[in-house]
């Protein structure tokens, strides 16, 4: 992804007539190469952290895109959307219960089990207050979600809503801080 090191190496090789491997340890060129390498590593680390933060949102949108396709591909009613939200939460509940059953008695919970327990409680709390999903109630926004190919940049064009457990829905924005 980052190409600073490659560009710097290319510039230095042009300056030295194609020879880059004969540099002094403290020379300007070796310091430039080191600085470029450190920059590339820093950019890769930041990109990985950003991707990790965005992953739950992408997984949520993919789940609702598949659910919409299974239900016919058009706009959905609020009751159908609530069923999809319940099934989204239920997938984590099932995984949590499987881990709990497979654990021997008198053993502490695994880290994965603890994380799933926290995730399920956070999802249920979010559902009570307003579960953020792409808008599936209008045909136009459902068609936009149908065209989504998995990229993060396209998610900003989608319209978003919050659906509560009580059955209300209101407009929302793309969750920029991440979900859970």
TrEMBL record:
Region (Disordered): 1-21
Source taxon at top rank: Eukaryota
Protein known as: Translation machinery-associated protein 16
InterPro entries per UniProt: Tma16 (IPR021346), Tma16_sf (IPR038356)
Amino acid composition bias (Basic residues), ranges on this chain: 1-17
Pfam families: Tma16
Organism: Stachybotrys chlorohalonatus (strain IBT 40285)
One Gene Ontology CC term in the entry: nucleus
Entries under Gene3D superfamilies matching the protein: Translation machinery-associated protein 16-like
Family of the protein in this entry: Belongs to the TMA16 family.
């Amino acid at each position: 992804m980052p190409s600073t090191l490659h560009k710097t190496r290319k510039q230095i090789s042009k300056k030295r007539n194609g020879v880059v491997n004969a540099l002094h340890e403290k020379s300007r060129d070796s310091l430039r190469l080191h600085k470029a390498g450190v920059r590339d590593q820093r950019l890769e680390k930041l990109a990985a952290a950003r991707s990790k933060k965005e992953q739950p949102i992408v997984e949520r949108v993919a789940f609702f895109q598949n659910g919409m396709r299974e239900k016919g591909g058009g706009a959905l009613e609020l009751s159908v959307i609530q069923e999809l939200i319940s099934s989204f939460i239920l997938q984590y509940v099932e995984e949590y219960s499987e881990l709990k059953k497979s654990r021997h008695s008198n053993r502490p919970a695994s880290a994965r089990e603890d994380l799933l327990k926290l995730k399920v409680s956070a999802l249920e709390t979010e559902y009570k207050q307003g579960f953020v999903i792409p808008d599936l109630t209008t045909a136009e926004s459902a068609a936009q979600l149908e065209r989504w190919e998995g990229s993060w940049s396209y998610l900003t064009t989608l319209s978003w809503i919050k659906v509560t457990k009580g059955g209300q829905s209101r407009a929302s924005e793309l969750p920029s801080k991440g979900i859970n």
